[in-house]
Fold:
Amino acid sequence: MLLEANGIQKSYDGVKALSSVSLDLRAGEVHALVGENGAGKSTLIKVLTGAVQPDGGGIRLHGQPIEHNNPAKARELGISAIYQQPALFPDLSVAENIAIANDRNKLWQIVDWQTRTAVATGWLQQIGARFSPDALVSSLSMPEQQLVEIAKALAANASVLIMDEPTSSLGQQDTRELLRIVRELRARGTGILYISHRLEELFEIADRVTVLRDGTNVGTREMAEVTSRDLIRMMVGRELETLYPKLEIKAGEVALELRSIYCKRSNLRNVNLSIRRGEIVGLAGLVGSGRTQLAEALFGLATISQGSIYIDGIPVEIRSPRDAVRAGLAYVPEDRRRHGVILEMAIRSNVTLASLDKLSKNGMLQKRAERDVAQEFTERLHFKAPSIETITKNLSGGNQQKVALARWLVTKPKVLILDEPTQGIDIHAKSEIYHLIGALAERGMAILLISSEMSEILALSDRIAVMSKGELVGMFDRKDASPDEILRLALNQNESQFRGQN
Amino acid sequence: MKLQLRPAWPALIALGTLYIYLAFAAPKFYRADNLRDLALANVAVLLVSTGMTLVIVLGEIDISVGATFAVCSIICGTFAKLGVPAILWPLVALAAGSILGATNGALVSFVKAPSIVVTLATMVTWRETLRWITNGAWIEGLPNTFQWFGLGQRRGEAVIVASAALLFGILWWTSRNLSAVRAIYATGSDAEAARLAGIPTKQLVLSVFVVMGALTGIAALLNAVRFSDVPANSGINLELKAIAAVVVGGTPITGGRGNLVGTLLGVMLLGSIGPALIFLGVSPYWEKAIQGGIILAGVLVDAISRWRGRRVEFA
Structure:
């Protein structure tokens, strides 16, 4: 056995990311790793490459237990990883990029340029790359950069190669080429752990498959013995409906309507969508399918090249977040720590930040009114914080998310866009946020809920829209929605090309 | 209303220690004429530092204030020489400073150039343009109404110090109550997050640079009327004095935090060193070295408080 991981456990701030996951990898095998976003794939990779330390469990390489505490050490041991986005130095040449990984301990020696170039040329030839080792990485295309990553791993003598969605940014032709190289590596005896959302690709290349769900290994199977239906069922699980209560809310007038929205820069095509007052529309799709891009276009963060937005039946121009706020939109972005709240500020200032105009008289902030508002909303949202003067940075993830939500509740928006509202927060806070979302809808807010958690989407939404490659490829009513069907639409690129309309 | 002294406590302690020590070691420091000279000499630095505090809290920097100061001094002198009545000089100073500040602000907010580069460029441009136009010549032969606004030295001094104090007081109160100032803090902490909260960050950056320029203009006028002639190269190193006072006052250079009371203490501390040395009989050549040491100490205190994870908000 080449690589064995036994009972790997990892928690972040008390949230279990992996609970006792075991996995083994043989030499000369392509082992697929699949699971929904948040299932624990990334954490497992990070543990294997030494980027994070597991709380429990151990790793054996060639039967020997190994201790590694950083990716460089893992690389020396022969475990290399290639990520979705190449991690290269764009301003250095290909040869330098390949050498840098292996020259770590020779920082104070004179560079032998000839050997460097020769070594790089050798590896590039082996994988059939057709660019020069002297080319600057920034001048290469994405697939070419992936090849540099592979050459880098080979030059580091990798016996274990972890590939995290290597084809997600590649077209069909380049994907074929990459799969060919993967097969070659397998024939040489390299063990490959291959992570991908593209199931059809896995059936083509993988020997075995392991499915992760909620931080546990749901099963490892021979690829030849499973169907894509089996895999999807294993990924989604079955305990969906009972988790969170869904309020029955009578939907009102149409609050938000999008008519054939196109956005060149973020690749949105012909998005038609309407949300009624009191309605929650879930937006499902893979990471990179255009869900966040749609939210950003709506909120004035990306220019809409064509199409129109109506709020309460009135066409609105949205060119900046300020326009969006004025039009009655609110957006709780995905990256809460970066964009959702201002960490250095007190809860009070964060909660009122989008409503400063309303809380001011002649430009002067009415401090008493501000305090009252902040107090009211923190109580309504059951904050666990000493006071409204507590600095947001010192709150837990769940409470920070409540700060972000509270800010927008103060503005009393007509349409609320939530992007991954429960990402990285514990189950209790999640449940509180779910209740809050329900309560907001009950008060007549139209809600667009973006989430990668199937259970969340299914439990909360009245309707579910599925996005793939910048288009809406499906729309389900709550009663007709099935996780298998949603995931199939989100995953299946071929079929999406024929659907197009919602 | 609280004074919010917590970030400025190192400056406050240093200043208190210095002033108590002087009370024993050199009581002459407290003679009325010395205090008056001290106040008068620091009026310009205080007003510029006040604007600089806002700029730094916003997460930007303006190193062109010295050049702006020189340009505004010459413009005020020129208008005075042309016979424009004294009552209009403040408007001239405000307008000149605002235009120069707006140039910086527009380049930073709409062209999205880093403020350190923009203001470095405008600093050089304005100083060299001024040198080219004036040939380095001072403005001389000003009307009698120019020096001390024609009020005589005693009353003129009082007017200068009182206007600066009044202006600082208004700005301080405003900084605690104007909701736009909250937006400045938010933008300085995280510009993208502020924009996502619907704050018009571009207009905000433009306005803060305009205020910076306007304050520099007023500072230039209040400084120029202390003399009978206007030099062509005033305000040398003014930007460094202002930035130093802001940092010593507990406003970190990284933006998002800080306050004006700290800046007042910073100006008082750095401005008192020179006269204090004279009264203590120490060579005044030590002034710059000590000021440098104070800035370093301020930075260290800020670093230590960050290591201990203490974060306090002052908005």
